[in-house]
């Protein structure tokens, strides 16, 4: 199996930088032992203008069969696993998942985008050409799409590659025998090398369609890890997940769900930006700008206060998710919280921001999804933090509908875009766990304002913003809920907008800021931590109500 990667260069950015990026010296040929055979790395060409690295993997087909047997299943070659085909197969020649594994073994650091010797180099996009002399495109209905675009084009073109795929003749000496099942694949594009390697790592097995090692649950993490930054937006992400996970449906579904979560978080932002632009156009003839309290006069206002928007030629609008975090951080700063819980922390963006706050001494991120936590750990580079930083942060798995002793002793808790992911009947259990049992002094809750949905241009009428939202509330519904919770558990509550506040439908996101009552009444009254009331129960259920004066914001 063979793959080569070339780059071109100039005097000030020589092509031989490839050696630094790959952590492999251009003048040395090296050999590595991988789980499927010997891998050789060498540079057929290493000049300032053109540099090519080649990786050759010598697969031992017999060892392969033994390995697969050891794991309880035979190799699944495309043609089925007949006795002879187990030993005489195309594995030694055709690029496949085995090559992907070898790429990862040999270029692990480069794939992570780390280049310690020349920091900055790994972030640069370079002209790259990848050549795979023999690729077998696995069978299955997906080999060609309904529009007859070959799978290789569908997989690589959306990522910015130009694809040249030439069928390899069965035998060059006998052209009349026709084409073999293999393609010579040449990909050209301008990309970061780490991205290119990650894409190959995922897409080679996807093309091949016949993985040779056991698909364990951690393959989902591998897929999401290598797919970070490109897979969530790939139009064929579902097909890629299914084929990568070799149709282990439950795993593929989990991967697809996580990709949707990541994508929708971003889509949310993009839609917000689109909407902001639309507002400017729609309202430009109005007497007053209504796209936010601060727009209209000053185009450069408050990009980071999270409350306004900007005029058409002002700076780029701040993504809604960013604005949300800013409003949350501002509320936490005001409350003086040092120990903070991020409940339903997802992929850890807020945790990352909290760690940048000098006054925050410890952060506990909690989520029910192991995959989200794994992504958070990856993004936060938890394995590379200094000891002092590492001591400030912990991510744990937990379900927020159960009381949890680990949540005690914190100053503040954040529930950012989490409550709407719970079925309504489960919400009182969360209220009890957070407000009744953990009882931090400050609780910040954000949730979509459903009234604003009519302003998302690309959201079909009546649709929730996210497939996993179990409900979305109007401002009045959110206010009712928050006031009832505050009253039941001895907190005061105030409300803040996140994002541009529309005069008719309000802001895109609504935020409730709870403060625990100051000790004299509710919080010390034993009944407050009793069985939570069910939703719909009137708020005056006998729990103390010293808190009916919401504090101003
Ligand atoms: N707080 C993040 C993520 C919001 S997405 C942000 O603002 O971007 C909602 C998150 O809540 C998901 O990561 C989901 O796994 C988590 N979640 C949903 N129900 C949960 C539960 N019952 N317990 C813990 N986490 C939950």
Task: Briefly characterize the structure.
The chain is 30% helix and 20% strand. The chain has helices at residues 17-22, 61-70, 97-106, 108-111, 151-156, 193-208, 218-226, 237-244, 249-283, 320-335, 349-355, 370-379, 387-390, 427-438, 475-489, and strands at residues 2-8, 30-34, 37-46, 50-59, 125-136, 162-169, 179-192, 339-343, 362-367, 393-397, 412-416, 442-448, 491-498, 509-516. The protein has 553 residues and is of the alpha/beta class.
What would you say this structure looks like, in words?
- This protein has 15 helices and 14 strands.
- It has helices spanning 17-22, 61-70, 97-106, 108-111, 151-156, 193-208, 218-226, 237-244, 249-283, 320-335, 349-355, 370-379, 387-390, 427-438, 475-489; strands spanning 2-8, 30-34, 37-46, 50-59, 125-136, 162-169, 179-192, 339-343, 362-367, 393-397, 412-416, 442-448, 491-498, 509-516.
- Helix 11 links the parallel strand 8 (339-343) and strand 9 (362-367).
- The radius of gyration is 28 Å and the shape is elongated.
- It binds S-adenosyl-L-homocysteine (SAH).
- The site of S-adenosyl-L-homocysteine has 17 residues, from loops.
